[in-house]
């Protein structure tokens, strides 16, 4: 069921999925009205194959890589599984971080079990950045692969991939990155950044859901081991009839995103900072989760002291936001990412992720600020009736949550 409130929906859940870009919608719709299997040799098939080739070139331009280094998939989850399966080696561990998406953590365990290996998990600091000392210790065991996400899906914290690649390659390990949240939002240059494998998903930056890609650097990954069998598609690395409309939409979204990456990142960062400043000033008990600067421009993870996230979200139905990761939202457990960062269970259960994107406007942010402040005060009054809240958000009384300075 869609939003039915009196106020228009303010969509601040881009890390879950972005609205389909107009360019991607038009390209996908056109492809859906065409006919032709990209593997067929007749004219309709050749037209479909040409559309796929053009989309591949557009995605390659966004990543600054060769089109031949891309394998189209159903999304980042499949790409992550394909990457880890291809890099795993019996007897050599897989190294991941404690804040990876389940598409990496669960895939790593499954792959390690299948090849007779182990998974080595390294921690993060309180601000969500990687513990490089633990990475160096893990590299001393000569792992086959290091898989570190480019940007966290819950906090937006960015990894120092240049440094990870440098020290991992010096130790002889391949490096994979789940870049689902980074691609299409910040520039990435795979000619300079020497990752061996990278996963991406189009729906995070405005392509249709259900299409993504794996980048596999030519000459560095020994062999791509398909997850399925039954065809020679994608040069034998991913069998199955190509999703031409989805791939065409991915190419259109990539081209649209590439036009103004730097300008859009700056615009969105200003809106996010405006949102955080207003909310944290009005509600001093609110705390930011993650590094204040080294993060995606559009992500704000906030903990509302003593106020459960589900109660806050219910009190502001005009805002689309998430409790942690959308992929884990049904688990009814606090965010393992925030727990890994040192937050208590209670603190993690009071965290909400707001994520902005290409269609977010200043009016959206101004409205969101009003809704969040109003919801916080109403939820606080309902849960702690024996306390009062001043105009600045400071709690007075003995039974309310402990408020902290932002």
What features would you highlight for this structure?
406 residues, alpha/beta, Aspartate Aminotransferase, domain 1, Aspartate Aminotransferase, domain 2, 2 domains, seven-stranded mixed sheet, three-stranded antiparallel sheet, globular, disordered C terminus, Cysteine_dSase
Outline the structure in words.
This protein has 406 residues and is an alpha/beta fold. The protein has two domains: 10-19 and 260-396, Alpha-Beta Complex (Aspartate Aminotransferase, domain 1); 22-258, Aspartate Aminotransferase, domain 2, CATH 3.40.640.10. 38% of the residues lie in helices and 13% in strands. The protein has helices at 22-33, 43-63, 76-87, 102-115, 132-139, 161-170, 233-236, 244-258, 261-282, 309-315, 336-340, 345-348, 362-383, and strands spanning 10-11, 70-73, 94-97, 119-122, 145-147, 174-178, 197-201, 212-216, 286-288, 299-304, 319-320, 351-355, 388-389, 395-396. The chain has a seven-stranded mixed beta sheet, sandwiched between helices. A three-stranded antiparallel beta sheet has the order 9-10-12, covered by helices on one side. The protein has a two-stranded parallel ribbon with strand order 1-11. Strand 3, helix 4 (102-115) and strand 4 form a beta-alpha-beta unit. The longest helix is centred in the last third of the chain and has 22 residues, at 261-282. Mean pLDDT is 91; it is low at 390-396 and 402-406.
Summarize the structure.
This protein is of the alpha/beta class. It folds into 2 domains: 10-19 and 260-396, Aspartate Aminotransferase, domain 1, CATH 3.90.1150.10; 22-258, Aspartate Aminotransferase, domain 2.
């Amino acid at each position: 069921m869609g939003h039915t409130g009196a106020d228009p929906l303010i969509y601040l859940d881009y890390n879950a999925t972005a609205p389909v870009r107009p360019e991607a919608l038009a390209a996908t719709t056109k492809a859906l009205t065409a006919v032709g299997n990209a593997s067929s040799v007749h004219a309709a098939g050749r037209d479909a194959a040409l559309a796929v080739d053009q989309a591949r070139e557009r995605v390659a331009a966004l990543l600054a890589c060769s089109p031949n280094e891309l394998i189209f998939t159903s999304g980042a989850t499949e790409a992550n599984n394909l990457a880890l399966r291809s890099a795993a080696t019996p007897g050599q561990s897989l190294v991941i971080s404690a804040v990876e998406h389940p598409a990496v953590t669960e895939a790593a365990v499954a792959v390690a079990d299948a090849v007779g290996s182990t998974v080595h998990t390294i921690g993060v600091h309180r601000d969500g950045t990687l513990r490089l000392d633990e990475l160096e210790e893990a590299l001393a065991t000569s792992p086959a692969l290091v898989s570190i996400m480019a940007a966290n899906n819950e906090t937006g914290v960015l990894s120092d991939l240049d440094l990870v690649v440098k020290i991992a390659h010096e130790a002889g390990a391949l490096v994979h990155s789940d870049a689902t949240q980074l691609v299409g939002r910040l520039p990435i240059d795979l000619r300079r950044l020497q990752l061996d494998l990278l996963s991406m998903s189009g729906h995070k930056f405005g392509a249709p859901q259900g299409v993504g890609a794996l980048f596999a650097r030519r000459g560095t990954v020994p062999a791509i081991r398909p997850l399925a069998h039954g065809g020679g598609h994608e040069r034998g690395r991913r069998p199955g009839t190509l999703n031409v409309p989805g791939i065409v939409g991915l190419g259109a979204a990539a081209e649209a995103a590439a036009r103004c990456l730097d300008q859009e990142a700056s615009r969105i960062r200003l809106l996010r900072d405006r949102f955080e400043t207003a909310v944290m000033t009005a509600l001093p008990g609110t705390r930011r989760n993650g590094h204040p600067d080294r993060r995606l421009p559009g992500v704000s993870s906030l903990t509302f002291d003593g106020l459960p996230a589900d109660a806050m979200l219910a009190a502001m139905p005009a805002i689309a936001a998430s409790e942690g990761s959308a992929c884990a939202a049904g688990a009814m457990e606090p965010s393992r990412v925030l727990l890994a960062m040192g937050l208590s269970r209670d603190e993690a259960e009071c965290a909400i992720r707001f994520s902005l994107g290409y269609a977010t406007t200043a009016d959206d942010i101004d409205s969101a600020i009003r809704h969040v402040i109003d919801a916080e005060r109403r939820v606080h009054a309902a849960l702690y009736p024996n306390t009062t809240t001043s105009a600045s958000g400071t709690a007075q009384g003995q039974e309310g949550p402990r408020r902290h300075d932002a």
